[in-house]
């Protein structure tokens, strides 16, 4: 008696499969017929086999138990209202809270009342060490996410100026112990503006390299404390990301983030450099047209982030870009994650994508291509220099334009937008908030990287007069 059913079948080699495919094609060209080229310059093959599959060593999640957490983002314009909303979210399924704080004068006593000691991410839109000291007094186990280079890329200006921002960031990293203060890399601007997955990963690596080069050069006396903290794993890299629409590519992307972090760490002699990844669905592919489809988009996007190894996921309400914050949208977004965790059991397997030939191949190619692009950026003076020269902005615009052209010609599908439109759900003349790109006239040091949803032009053409 056989131990396993498949013991009765002889294994088939990759070469045998390819030979069979060629026979079935009856003379048609294999590459033109079955191989698909992507914007990442990766050719997707019709078959992935153990014979040629790479063996990947993907670092574990940054969480202590290798689990992922459901979080909810709270805008903290009003301390009392934000506190009430945060407590409600925690009582209804959220495991953590992401506090988006626009101003340093917010009353922390009111904002943090009854909130837990752990599970808080704090995202200030400013650098203010006195505010951070006060916050540390209230919640020393919170995780603060600050990224001056992201401020430059997204807004076109530093918080104050380059010298002062980097000096304040150094003080931030050295003043507070543990994970309260880490280096944060926010890559959401790159993705939402239209960067390919390869570009996003390469810009992440270049972004991180700017900080490591500035703060972890052991030849500089003042950098030794920061270097030691990372080397002893007393600090890590926070990566704030948005999730794209290509399901398998996104799974591979999150695995590649960990590989790139470890690779750059080794280059600086930090062998155990770890990262903590926070993910949320991108607005880029969301639409006013048949807007309920946004629920399907955010569900598969959150799945890909979880399967790729994200540590914290906070979902995007389906109506986040055209309706004001509302209980229904927030509850549905939170429940989507609860279903993935409590009913689909996506927290029961730590690295679900391990051993998959296709995803391993994608992960390897993305990592390698990102490192190649990183070398080009570094040869050009690094990320900051490239931002001032406009190189990064130009490359992202080219990728964005190519994807828009593909959507226009039908080569890219958005259900409810350019395929299977819902005539029973027409657009309105007005929405609670402006759903289209907002361009603010202001003086900037560089051209900021701006986001525009893919469907905006199509929506504008269908807006009722």
Automatic annotation (TrEMBL):
It comes from the Bacteria. InterPro entries: Cbl-dep_enz_cat (IPR016176), MeMalonylCoA_mutase_a/b_cat (IPR006099). This is Methylmalonyl-CoA mutase, small subunit. GO terms for molecular function: cobalamin binding; intramolecular transferase activity. Residues 144-455 form the Methylmalonyl-CoA mutase alpha/beta chain catalytic domain. SUPFAM superfamilies: Cobalamin (vitamin B12)-dependent enzymes. Pfam families: MM_CoA_mutase (PF01642). Coiled coil: none annotated. It comes from Nonlabens marinus S1-08.
